[in-house]
Design a protein that fits this description.
Helices cover about 0% and strands about 50% of the residues. It has about 400 residues and is mostly beta strands. It has a five-stranded mixed sheet, with no helix packed on it. The protein has a four-stranded antiparallel sheet with strand order 3-4-5-6, with no helix packed on it. The termini are far apart.
């Protein structure tokens, strides 16, 4: 569906305080509320969040025009959540031919994937001066990158075709080196919903109805150690390309939702401690015990009114982004209390907004949720304005 791109979320949660009497106060009931908004000059196709010198920032990769498109890195100062402002930008050399981009911030270095017309690249950008970000290095990948996570002195990059992972050593950010690669043993052909997160020495990758766990303690020789398959997942064949002169079925909104959140598909994963939290579309939120990476096991599941497509966790709260169709495409942010992982509970109200659907996402960073759709950034207070202070 032409022109459909990304909704992004960045989540942080405020902790409860202690009363003067010394007894802990109950945390406020989550009540998400939009408190600010910002409009980009292009379509946002990649994101990261973090702090520099005590200020909060979003780092965005945007595209202008059709594919191949000019790409720009934008630094958005969100220190005042009610008035986000662009602090700086950097034009990316070479047009991009694939919208998805991965960004990760480590200190004052930003790692960015770029699918150029000639080759895929890992870009290394110095953002120590938010007003004047500067590219300091790049690494040719030989594949078109679709996502990225960073852990310690290494970066893991998901590349096309789906299932390939490339590892880069960034011990010296100004001289990144390819360290290793891995092809997951079971993947679906073509571009998929593949997403990943790194926790400690383990990498967690969701694709189709499967979660794969990879030991990346030695990035030069990563090893698959375990997997989980959603019992609700049914493998389907790719839809063949239409032939000339043959009429094709009109894509309905319901079809579009199924394409974005296929029944039983595992769409995103977040990890905290000994548990993995999976946004699983029609299967809701799935909780896994991953204390034994070789044998992850499901310990709970909770139904959600919408189809969750992305998830983040902070402390005992999980935030979900879900999609449904009610006269138009609608996205919802909901909060789940996972203080008891065996009995997760939906809590509080939800916030919703309408937008064109595509590769929506959530990432943790700061005290607010940043919901991105096309070129708009909505700033959302999880507890409602003033309630989390």
């Amino acid at each position: 569906m032409r022109g459909l791109i990304s909704a992004l979320l960045v989540v942080g949660l405020v902790l409860g305080s202690v009363s003067c009497a010394g007894e802990p106060e109950l945390p406020p009931e989550p009540s998400p509320e939009v408190v600010g908004q910002w409009e980009s000059e292009g379509v946002i196709c990649g994101y990261a969040a973090g702090e520099l010198d005590g200020r909060s920032y979003l780092f965005l990769k945007t595209m202008q025009g059709g594919l191949p498109a000019a790409a720009t890195l934008r630094v958005l100062d969100v220190s005042d959540p009610t008035a986000p402002v662009e602090a700086g930008s950097l034009e990316v050399s070479g047009a991009t031919v694939m919208p998805p981009a991965g960004l990760a911030l480590s200190g004052d270095i930003l790692y960015v994937t770029h699918a150029g017309q000639e080759q895929g690249e890992l870009l290394v950008v110095d953002v120590s001066d938010a007003a004047s970000p500067e590219q300091v290095a790049f690494l040719s990948l030989g594949h078109a990158p679709t996502g990225l996570v960073q852990s310690g002195n290494h970066v893991c990059i998901a590349v096309f075709p789906a299932g390939w992972l490339v590892f880069a050593d960034v011990t010296d950010p100004e001289s990144p080196q390819q360290a290793g690669e891995l092809r997951l043993s079971r993947t679906r052909p073509g571009v998929s919903h593949q997403r990943m997160v790194c926790s400690g020495s383990m990498l967690y990758v969701v694709d189709g109805g499967r979660l794969d766990i990879v030991d990346v303690s030695s990035p030069s020789s990563p090893q698959e150690v375990g997997f989980y398959v959603n019992p609700d997942w049914e493998e389907t064949e790719d839809v063949p390309a239409p032939q000339d002169g043959v009429k094709t079925k009109k894509v309905t909104p319901s079809d579009a939702v199924d394409m974005l959140a296929p029944p039983g598909a595992l769409l995103d994963v977040a990890v905290s401690g000994q548990h993995a939290y999976i946004a699983a579309g029609t299967s809701g939120l799935i909780l896994l015990d991953i204390s034994d990476p070789a044998a992850p096991r499901q310990v709970a599941q909770i139904e959600v009114p919408e189809r969750p497509t992305h998830v983040v966790v902070s402390g005992s709260l999980v935030c979900l982004l879900g999609i449904d169709w009610v006269e138009e495409f609608t996205f919802h942010i909901r909060v789940v209390d996972v203080s008891d992982p065996l009995a997760p509970q939906l809590v509080g109200s939800s916030v919703e907004f309408t937008a064109l659907p595509a590769n929506q996402a959530i990432v943790y960073g700061g005290d607010f949720v940043y919901a991105i759709s096309m070129g708009s950034v909505r700033v959302i207070d999880v507890y409602g304005s003033g309630n989390g202070e």
